Structure formats: structure tokens, C-alpha cells
Predict the 3D structure of the following.
Amino acid sequence: MVLGLLVWLEEENVSFDVLGDLNWLAVIVATDTVAEGIVLGLVTGVGIALSALFVTGFFDPQKPQAAVWVAVVSGYHVVGLVIAAIILAIWT
């Protein structure tokens, strides 16, 4: 099933960008209310932004307070993804 989906995506020349992927995910899970948009934004924000920035902050010895840096920077991205997910949920 995954291979078939990847082949279809390649045939349709689907580009992979964050908002495009978020919109695609919103359509797949039938997100159409503000509450569902918030949940979708939180799940994608924690899954994408927090996990990636946690690894960056954890392994960078130059940051004096790595936990604060991870919280601030990933929080910024999580809020942005929540706002984008709400807009996509209402729009689609």
C-alpha cells in the first residue's frame, strides 16, 4: 500500500513541502473543525519540530541551556504548525 502511494505521488508530481504535507494529511484524516486542526497541528508539531530540535539541542555542546533553547525554538514551530493546521482545517 505504501509503495503504491509513493508511486502515485511520483506520477502526479506531488511536491513535498511542510504546508503541502500538512494539507495532504488534513485531507486524509478528514480534519474539518478547529479542534481537529489544533490536534493535527500539535501532533505534527511535536512529531516534526520538537523531535528534530530536541536532537539538535541535545548534541550541540555550545548551547549553555539546551533545554531552554529546544523549548523556545520548537515551541515557535509548534505554534506555527497549529495555526497552519487550523487554517487548513477550516479551508478544506
Q: What stands out?
A: Helices lie at 2-11, 18-28, 34-59, 66-91. Residues 34-59 form the longest helix (26 residues).
